[in-house]
Amino acid sequence: MLVHSRTGKWATWALFFALFLPLFALPLLVIAVASLSTNWSGAFPSGPTTGHYASAVRGESLQALTTSLVTAAIASALALAVGTWAALAAASLKTRGGGTRGAARLWGSVLDTLFMLPVAVPSVVVGLAVLVAFSQPPVLLNGTPWIVILAHTVLVTAFAYQSVSAAILRLDPMYEQAAASLGARPSYVLWRVKLPLLLPSLNAAAGLCFALSMGELSATMMLYPPDWMPLPVLIFTATDRGSLFTGSAVAVVLMATTLLVLLAVSRLRTRASYR
Predict the structure, then answer these.
(1) CA nearest 238: which of 64, 29, 49, 11?
(2) CATH code at position 180
(3) Which residue among 98, 150, 193, 260 is least crowded, i.e. fewest CB within 10 A of its CB?
């Protein structure tokens, strides 16, 4: 820590807990307690039960959880592939020399702006744009699961692009130069040198994209067909009908599932770092 005195450390920890508990931990604790209750009319809940979890892991809730997992997995994979390709292309343009250096840097900046645009606008705007663009031939996706997956991909690709771009800036170019000096082709340098060095950042970007996709609601509400309802939509509809305790149990299932996947991704990231 930057604070070295004992008094300063205690004050820092006290400030941390004073901000962390009310802003982050307490709301999650309230949801967890509500998921185990049947009534909450006073200061504390009453009627402890685990029945809400019995319905949260079967039937419609289980199908919605499966839908969210499939959507997040496909959207994360697509976003990681597109974001990595775009980050590599933008980095190549920005470092290109010769007479076209200025134009190359301009195109690199255009790529930066293009891929960061979905972050700059509300997700509901992205959902509306996808709905308008793909509700008529020749590409008709409205009413299919693919329109939801496409919207999630557009929303999370920016984070994959940003993560990989930051990692590329930290790479030591000597590794690529050494491989090229030994006669390695550009494709070999990319697959056997550059991408392995980027593997920890790629794993981190995949985890971030997955978590964001699992919790996406605004754009999904505009696009999802009746047979492809992700879990956040089910939580919203349950609480909108007044089933707050059931919705809390489903929300806990969503948080736990996302956390387990992120823990698995973090283990892969750790192994990639050692490698």
Answers:
(1) 64
(2) 1.10.3720.10
(3) 98
